[in-house]
Amino acid sequence: MTTPTVPTTPHSTPDQPATPVFFLAGGTGISAETLGNLLLAQFPGLAFTRRKIPFITTVEKASEVVAQIDGAMTDSVTPLAFSTVSDDEIRQELQRTQAAFIDLFGSHLDTVERVLHVNATHSAAALHGVGDTLRYDRRMKAIEFAMEHDDGASLRNLAQSDLILVAPSRCGKTPTSMYLALQHGLKVANYPLVPEDFDTGDLPRPLRDLGDKCFGLLSTPARLSQVRGERRPGSTYATLAQCSFELRRAETMYRAHRIPAINSAKMSVEEMAAVIMQSSRLPDLA
């Protein structure tokens, strides 16, 4: 199913229209979207509309996609198409587009084959890890663990976690936990710091023997107040004073217990996950 077109910035004008961007894949499209967006992030002043087209598994479907992409062309705009399609025949059909076609899969495959002295399978299942049952099961178990231990909902088996994210409410614990589980197969719990936790500066009781597994998240008072205000407008919980207090006390707690921390205010989930894994020396289990 094609996702709706969503402008990414409000800055396009008649003189500089938004560039249509298509993410094409034989599977879910997560890889094409992630890698394509990584490249687009290098052009912060430009406007784009993004559309993901997953599960392109036949030449007929590829022909329909080519027509759709070419239909977005104008005299002043050439679409960009990022592809991770692995099937040779389908890729060749997609390459018929008049748009700029960025082959994120095939363009590097020859180099890898040459170095390894082995021909690739060109299999979508291999690309997305479906054929590796152990890895798939590990990711699914990690997601179940993250859901069970989201926002302190369960303290059971905390010691089995690979990582425990600790932060005041609305600093990005949940999406980061889920991303680390889905993309890296890590069992991540997250624990919310509430006002009572700031009275002594000690780690909350369930975490006191697990400090080596903890990683702290922070934000800026303005950003945290904005996010909380969208959830509970007009509440004390969302005031700038309350947010400033909680962030100061959380940072003091992290320092006292030598818990590494990052500021999530201007970081994407992907960036946060990468920094956390590197800082904590966590393996990629997916």
UniProtKB/TrEMBL annotation:
<keyword id="KW-0547">Nucleotide-binding</keyword>
<comment type="function">
    <text>Bifunctional serine/threonine kinase and phosphorylase involved in the regulation of the phosphoenolpyruvate synthase (PEPS) by catalyzing its phosphorylation/dephosphorylation.</text>
</comment>
<dbReference type="GO" id="GO:0004674">
    <property type="term" value="F:protein serine/threonine kinase activity"/>
</dbReference>
<keyword id="KW-0808">Transferase</keyword>
<dbReference type="Pfam" id="PF03618">
    <property type="entry name" value="Kinase-PPPase"/>
</dbReference>
<dbReference type="InterPro" id="IPR026530">
    <property type="entry name" value="PSRP"/>
</dbReference>
<keyword id="KW-0670">Pyruvate</keyword>
<protein>
    <recommendedName>
        <fullName>Putative phosphoenolpyruvate synthase regulatory protein</fullName>
        <ecNumber>2.7.11.33</ecNumber>
        <ecNumber>2.7.4.28</ecNumber>
    </recommendedName>
</protein>
<dbReference type="InterPro" id="IPR005177">
    <property type="entry name" value="Kinase-pyrophosphorylase"/>
</dbReference>
<dbReference type="GO" id="GO:0005524">
    <property type="term" value="F:ATP binding"/>
</dbReference>
<keyword id="KW-0723">Serine/threonine-protein kinase</keyword>
<comment type="similarity">
    <text>Belongs to the pyruvate, phosphate/water dikinase regulatory protein family. PSRP subfamily.</text>
</comment>
<keyword id="KW-0418">Kinase</keyword>
<dbReference type="GO" id="GO:0016776">
    <property type="term" value="F:phosphotransferase activity, phosphate group as acceptor"/>
</dbReference>
<dbReference type="GO" id="GO:0043531">
    <property type="term" value="F:ADP binding"/>
</dbReference>
<feature type="binding site">
    <location>
        <begin position="167"/>
        <end position="174"/>
    </location>
    <ligand>
        <name>ADP</name>
    </ligand>
</feature>
